[in-house]
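Issue: ligand-bound run for phosphoenolpyruvate - logging full I/O for the record.

Environment: standard queue, default settings, no custom constraints.

Inputs:
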Amino acid sequence: MSFSMHGVGVSGGIAIGHAHLVSHALLEVVQYKVPKNLIKQEIARFKEAVSTVRDDLESVRSQLPAKAPAELAAFVSTHLMLLADHTLSEMPIRIIESESCNAEWALKQQMENIVSQFDEIEDDYLRERKHDVVQVVERVIKVLLGHPSQVAIQEQEKAIILVAYDISPADAIQFKQHQFAAFITDVGGATSHTAILARSLSIPSIVALQRARSLIRDGELVIVDGNQGVVIVNPDKDTLSEYKLKQEQWEIEKQKLKRIKLTKAVTLDGTQVELHANIEVPEDVVNVKSVGATGVGLYRTEFLFMNRREMPDEEEQFLAYKNVAEAMDGLPVTIRTLDLGADKEINPDNARTCTNPALGLRAIRFCLSEPQMFHLQLRALLRASHYGNIKILIPMLSSIYELRQTMTLLDKAKKSLIQENQPFQKDIKVGGMIEIPAAALCAEAFARELDFLSIGTNDLIQYSLAIDRTDDTVSHLYNPIHPAIIQLVEMTIRAGQKLNKPVSVCGEMAGDVKLTRLLLGLGLRNFSMHPSNILTVKKQVLQTDLPKLLPIAKKIISSQDSERIEPLLEKMNLL
Ligand code: PEP
Ligand code: MG
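Outputs:
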């Protein structure tokens, strides 16, 4: 039966492929009684699942390429060891027998017993090992529930539509290594980091579909229209041909845009605009260059710290930053210091149980509370600055005090390198993210002490409008043209102009072509966005006559009413 679903399109384009349901196996486990005469069979089912997972893991270990990091092999070995331990391989059998319950339930019970013991361990390293237990159990439960293993997915065709309840940023970053056609989720906000990663993967994606995981079955044919936020399941022949045509048109448009790759971004009246790119991993530089971006405006370094056990050491960080700087060949590369916390936990299973993580120990607050770790990052950044045009960007500043603390730590890192005779850019430029309303209101003070400002509209909107950017139940309230947001952005740009300090926008607003003219009208000359948006925005810049739109921009700035702003913006975009 054909049906369609609507959600929030977070990355454009059209994909047609077969659904692959990403399992949240632990969530799916239910308890049921197993009659006494079938207990033996249930135990056999459990043993078989354990042995399937063991075979899978052993085959993964034996196929690891010689160049694979040593920790990857160690990771697989730990899982194999846990699987062989009697607490996981034997104890669940006792539970099946004593409670006459199903194998999944018994294993989940046993996992909870083990995890609660881990929670009491004082040693951080050992306590963290509980996540290995959870992951091993997940694997066995997936087999018990009949889900295909990860290995099987990779062998399938390329046109795979991932259907998940939710995807963490840590998972999404791993998708960069696989060629999925699209992903769709039941929950998630339009500016969540998962959505941002979807855009950087340049694959269509839709969040907040509510019931995709329960209504779509594995293997069903699915159309994902990321432009409209529509998913069509089991389309009929006519719909399928219609979308195949749309898909081709979308691709043709993308190809056409490539013609302006090397054209300078200058408005009709001759105003020059910088279009920089946002990246998450060094490999993204390929995309940055393929669209002719004139710099990296935001390198989110936190992704280097995810999906791993140990923090990257100074050398690893240095090499990552140096690679980007060298690849950009003298063009500016703005590297943001760690912005961990909120929805970007190093390991999402690890998320601290705090009531409001977005208001918690995030970004620069976290770094200042871990000065040794921060020292390594600052040293790595400084060392890399010798090899290119690196600028440092500090996230989530809320007060000048935090900025001064940071500058003291930066001085300390510089001194340590001077003592070691290590070369670095002595007058490296340092900028601050303006993404907390308090910082926008005090933008002048920040502009005085910094070399440049970068407005993070994703967080600025989250904090100003009090809407959790990862929560789809409030995503309808996300409004980049709310008068308060426009005023905060304009105020920040004005502060930069007054003190002659460059201001950019690196939040998702910068890549939204409907807002390009508005931002130009507010005085913005430096945009940073995902590479996939650069050419579309450039086309709009090339077609913009700035003096013509300024009177409308003035009206927008002075308006306190969103409903008045909308038609004014439409008018501006029709000029
Ligand atoms: C922002 O908040 O707008 C921003 C660019 O940073 P991030 O999305 O990584 O929080
Ligand atoms: Mg931010």
